[in-house]
Design a protein that fits this description.
An eight-stranded mixed beta sheet has the order 4-3-5-2-6-7-1-8, sandwiched between helices. Helices cover 44% and strands 16% of the residues. It has one domain: Glycerol-3-phosphate (1)-acyltransferase. With 255 residues, the protein is of the alpha/beta class. Helix 1 runs antiparallel to helix 2 and helix 5 crosses helix 6. The longest helix is centred in the N-terminal third of the chain and has 35 residues. The chain is globular, with a radius of gyration of 18 Å. The protein contains eight helices and eight strands.
Length: 255
């Protein structure tokens, strides 16, 4: 009987708190972005509002985010950030957790996703169409410009949400880093797929871990070494995903 009551309480919370807050907070971010657009050419104000609303959404949803290795990501330069991709929840988790200015480089289909996609659009994130070579090259050029402006670029290197383990990495992150000579910081997400499983639209309470690895420098690699550098980045993310008894330095909770 008690188990049934707990299940009902969780279901009601998801329906009346989590789902409703997703709608309301997205509308707030969208409205603010429209009003601030003429004065916020780089999207910095939007990121601040989106980060606040993402943290509030995660808190209302009962999702706790634990960041490990936060000190490895100083804010005085730009990076290519490369991460695994488990769930649509990855996006608000990143917005809530990363305190440096950054933009997502994401496939265009994500921009069509309700709530998450709208925020990507309003936040001046970069949409990439891999099937169209010219448009894909244009997206990478936009990402290069962001890096030169001091704004980091975050790429889910698998290109799509992974169902089983860490998938193969696309070469975009390596290509971008080698061309701009910007260091790459590997990121590993754990637990977002349990809070928001693939195919579901309802966020469940739980704990998510974001692990930040040591920066990978491009020194010693040529611009043509895209394959080797891509494999190196994948190994670094894979290492972060392995179970560890000792958390990385600088562990903190954001929600």
């Amino acid at each position: 009987m008690m188990h049934w009551i707990k299940q009902l309480a969780v279901a009601l919370r998801i329906l009346f708190v989590t789902d409703l807050s997703a709608v309301v907070l997205t509308l707030i971010v969208g409205l603010w972005s429209l009003l601030a657009a003429p004065f916020d050419r780089q999207g910095r104000t939007h990121q601040a509002i989106a980060a606040f609303c993402s943290r509030l959404f995660l808190r209302l949803s009962g999702v706790k985010v634990v960041i490990e290795g936060a000190r490895r990501l100083p804010h005085n330069r730009s990076y290519v950030l490369v991460a695994n991709h488990l769930s649509m929840l990855d996006i608000p988790v990143m917005l809530a957790s990363l305190r440096l200015p950054f933009r997502f480089l994401a496939k265009r289909s994500l921009f069509r996703t309700p709530f998450v996609g709208w925020n990507l659009y309003f936040g001046k994130h970069v949409a990439v169409i891999r099937e169209h070579r010219l448009l894909a090259a244009r997206a990478l050029h936009q990402a290069e410009q962001l890096l030169r402006q001091g704004i980091s670029v975050l790429i889910f290197a698998e290109g799509t949400r992974s169902r089983r383990g860490l998938g193969r990495f696309k070469p975009g992150a390596a290509h971008l880093a080698l061309k701009t000579r910007v260091p790459v910081v590997p990121l590993a997400l754990l637990g977002t797929n349990e809070c928001l499983p693939l195919g579901s639209i309802h966020v469940r309470p739980g704990t998510v871990n974001l692990r930040i690895g040591e920066a990978v420098e491009t020194a010693g690699f040529r611009e043509t070494d895209v394959h080797q550098f891509t494999e190196l980045l994948r190994r670094r993310v894979e290492q972060l995903l392995r179970p560890s008894d000792t958390p990385l330095a600088g562990a903190e909770a954001v929600s």
